[in-house]
Please model this.
Amino acid sequence: MPKEKTRIATTGLIKRFDGKNALDGVDLEVRDGEILTLIGPSGSGKTLLLKTILGLVTPDAGEIEVGGEAVLSLSGAERDEYLKQFGILFQRSGLFDGMPVWENIGFRLLQKSGASRKEVREAAIEKLRAVGLSPDVCDLYPAELSGGMQKRVGIARALAGDPSILFLDEPTAGLDPIMSNVINDLILQNVRDLGSTVIAVTSNLVTARRISDRIAMLHEGRVVWCGDVDAVEQSDNPYLDQFWHKRKDGPIQMPVSSLTF
Ligand SMILES: Nc1ncnc2c1ncn2[C@@H]1O[C@H](COP(=O)(O)OP(=O)(O)OP(=O)(O)O)[C@@H](O)[C@H]1O
Model:
């Protein structure tokens, strides 16, 4: 069988804050066209890893290759070009309060020269349809939308411009189980249609199970397990076992101060 192509690779990625390694030698390979989901306890480095790949955070050591090219040394203009291949759903959807839905979705397209506002609006309506929302939503403001609709608009914005790589940070956080499943299916359908490569971050293990081809678990800034989603249940990795089955006891120690009663 031909070896699957690697789309994103990090090697020995280290990021220190206040003398502590928040990323502690992350080696990760994301294959072309797959959905890889990062799971792990709060503070394990999931969002930080996405930010580092995007160049929003500069690592202290390590390499990042995307499409076979080293990206850490890119200059300003090269970086702008590099970022065009990404669609990003931020935690809490990250919508701009002062912009109607269609401008939120078309934000990047509006900045591109050549596209008229009418064209961008049409493109935004098409993406609204792709996430199951009617064109009527176009002129509403984010505050007028439910949490589930905000997530859909966030996904529509991530999909605008048909990116070949999608980063989805907590796509179902704060949603009820039914809306979470609607969003899971929307993600799967759109990703399959586009053929994008996806890194998702989620604390929702139902979402992880539903959307992922592979799962990588982070703990204290390291990948402690990575494998096919179907292999999770059979794994005897103590970190994965504790996290996946939500066990209180195991190698993952939760700081008492972070527990709420
Ligand atoms: N800009 C920053 N300055 C200082 N520390 C940071 C910064 N960004 C991240 N960290 C630290 O890096 C660690 C990893 O953070 P990160 O946001 O990646 O966690 P996470 O796994 O996404 O957690 P959560 O599931 O709670 O969102 C944390 O200890 C965090 O406090």
In short: Residues 90 and 169 are 5 Å apart (CA to CA).
